[in-house]
Specification:
The chain is an alpha/beta fold. The protein folds into 2 domains: 119 residues; 110 residues, FdhE-like fold (Alpha-Beta Complex). Helices cover 42% and strands 12% of the residues. Strand 1 and strand 2 form a beta hairpin. The protein is globular. The chain starts with 5 loop residues before the first helix and ends in a 9-residue tail after the last strand. Bound molecules: zinc ion (2 copies). One zinc ion binds next to loops.
Length: 301
């Protein structure tokens, strides 16, 4: 064996991370989600690793005002979550590497992006300086300047935002919970949910944020998308008698939200992995003329 090959061999034999195990379980349960989950696996692994390693200073909880939350202003509208001296380059390069690995069709674009980030031609903080408006402007500019597909830039920016937001919002959830936030959008970052979960013991509905991963309680009687109150026009759709995995639908805004019923609080989960595992429901609902409550990187066909 050539001397140089040993570290590589060691690297490939490493123990799978927590999220990799969850991805394998999800593929086992829903084999049709294999392609999607395999593509996103490197991104999910990088996210898990970086959140553990980054040790970012948390957002300033003292500036978060319960009264403003009650008026519907999320935490990100009250105190900054993105700082110029955050490790943008390291996060950006790690994410670009994961895009390259998971999405062969975007591999060349991801390499171009990595080169521009490395050379300082792209400063990722520029996309977050005036969040969320600055994201769209940066996406347009970098797509034009580097001649790469907008999907590659969008995938990179979405993943970077998710990592920084998760790392920075540690500990804030408890404060928010006490204020009785009653909106269908995330109290931390303002994004819409990709999944809702009705737990096993106390049958409340919890919404899972597509962007920062925060979960908040939301009444089961109202559509999170438009505020329509049940029973009129609100329904649950499921296939093959799998009543644990449903799509909540609203006739008023014509949107759906994938909803898990009677989910145990025990055991490890990653809600994004769970949601991607149920992508067949997204397909069916969109074929039936419903739009997702939140369009994200993987649920638009
Ligand atoms: Zn959020
Ligand atoms: Zn609605």
């Amino acid at each position: 064996m050539p001397a140089g090959s040993e570290p590589m061999a060691r690297k490939t034999e490493r123990k799978p991370s927590r999220v990799e195990g969850l991805i394998e379980d999800a593929i086992g349960k829903n084999p049709h989600s294999r392609e999607l989950l395999t593509a996103f696996k490197p991104l999910l692994v990088v996210r898990e690793r970086l959140i553990g390693e980054l040790k970012l200073k948390p957002a300033d909880r003292a500036r978060i005002d319960g009264e403003k939350l009650r008026r519907g202003i999320p935490c990100i509208g009250q105190t900054p979550f993105f700082f110029e001296d955050d490790p943008w380059k390291a996060v950006g390069l790690a994410v670009a590497g994961a895009v390259r690995e998971g999405f062969p069709a975007l591999a060349e674009d991801a390499a171009t992006l990595a080169g521009a980030i490395e050379a300082g031609k792209i400063r990722l903080f520029d996309a977050f300086a005036d969040y969320p408006d600055s994201v769209g402007a940066a996406l347009d500019r970098w797509t034009a300047e580097t001649h790469i597909k907008p999907q590659a830039v969008a995938l990179l920016l979405g993943a970077v935002a998710g990592i920084i937001l998760r790392a920075r919002s540690a500990g804030i959830g408890g404060d928010v919970e006490k204020t009785g936030w009653d909106r269908g959008t995330c109290p931390i970052c303002g994004a819409s949910p990709t999944l809702s979960v009705i737990r096993e013991k106390i049958t409340e509905r919890w919404l899972h944020c597509s962007r920062c991963g925060h979960e908040w309680r939301f009444t089961r009687m109202i559509c999170p998308g438009c505020g329509l109150e049940s029973p009129s026009g609100i329904d649950y759709f499921y296939v093959d008698d799998r009543r644990q995995e449903t799509a909540f639908t609203c006739d008023s805004c014509k949107r759906y939200l994938i909803t898990l019923n009677h989910v145990s609080d025990l055991g490890e989960t990653d809600r994004d992995v769970t949601a991607m595992g149920l992508v067949h429901l997204d397909l069916i609902m969109q074929e039936r003329g419903f739009a997702p409550m939140c369009r994200c990187e993987w649920n638009t066909f």
